[in-house]
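Q: TLC domain-containing protein 4-B-like isoform X2, please. Structure only.
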Amino acid sequence: MEISVRPSKFFGRYRSSPALSCARSGFSTLHAVLAAAVSFYLVVISDLFKDGACEELMINRKSVLSDTMFGISLGYFLSDLAMILWFFPSLGGKEYVLHHGLSMYAIFFSLILGKAHIYVLMVLFSEATTPFVNLRWYLDNAWQKSSKLYIYNGMALFLGWLVARILLFIYFFTHIYLHFDQVKTILPLGRYSLAIVPPVLALMNVFWFWKIFKGMMKTLSKKRHTK
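A: Structure for TLC domain-containing protein 4-B-like isoform X2:
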C-alpha cells in the first residue's frame, strides 16, 4: 500500500481557508505573551541577573523558570515550523523558516549548556510584538484596514517593534561587549553562535521594521486623503 506524503484533499481545502492561520495566530499570541512576561520578570524584575546578586558569573546563571520557558518555546517554534513547512508557502516564506530555525538552535544550545540564558531571554522578549502582528492579520482579513483600530494597532506595532526589536538589540550587543570576558568562557561553538545568530536576527528585524514603517506611512497617507 502506497502512503502519500502530500496533504489530503481535506488539508488542501484547509490550506486555502483562514481557519488554520487563525488557530496558528492564537497559539503564537499565547506563546508571545507568556515568553515576554517570563523574560521581563527574569531579566528586569528578579535578582537573577543583577550585578552582585550572587557569585555565579552572569553568563552561567539560570533558573527552573528559564529552563521551563525554553522548553515551551522550543515546542512552540518546532510545531509552528512544522506547519509552515507542511503548508509552505501559505503560512510563511523562507524568512520564517530561517527565523524559527535560528531561534530553536539558540534556545536548544543555551538550554543544553545552561549558559547565556540572559541573552536568549532578551531575544524572547522581542516576541512581545507578535500580538500586534496577529491583530493586524485579523483586522486585515475582517476588511477593517480603514478602521481606527487598524491604524492604532499599526502605530503600536511600529513603536513596539522599535523598542523590542531595534533598541533592545542595541542594548543586547552592548551588554555582550561589556561582559565579553564572561562570554569568552563559553565553548567556541557558543561564542560563534553569539557572533552569528543575533546579528542575523537583528538584520531581519531591521528589514521588517522598514516594511512596517512604509506600511504605516502608506496607511496614514490614505487616511489623510480620505478626509
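A: Brief note, in case it's useful. Residues 1-14 have pLDDT under 50 and may be disordered.
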